[in-house]
Design goal:
Length: about 120
Amino acid sequence: MALQPLQNRPNKTVFRNTTRCLKLTEEEARSLDEVAGAKGVPRSEWMRDVILRELRPASAGDASLAEILGVRLLLVNVLRPLAAGQRLTPEAFDKLLDDISAAKYELAGKLASEKRR
């Protein structure tokens, strides 16, 4: 039985006592072994990490995605009016930044959830 220290309580341990099984083809098993070996971790640890990462709510990866989406939204919404010969007032720019700040995490969440399907 593997022991795993709790992140917030260094003196406590968690006992993993539930097993889940799956069947793989020979090719899938070889691929699994290669990937886990390349990462330098045991096969079961790699599988556990992948499964738990998929079960966790969106986190740091989505923060990066949200920022990238924010920059893209800013570029599109600033360059489009400029290309059309329009001027962007400081007030309009500030409103645009506020709107993007409010929307980028929602968009990142939607994209991440679509990716998981």
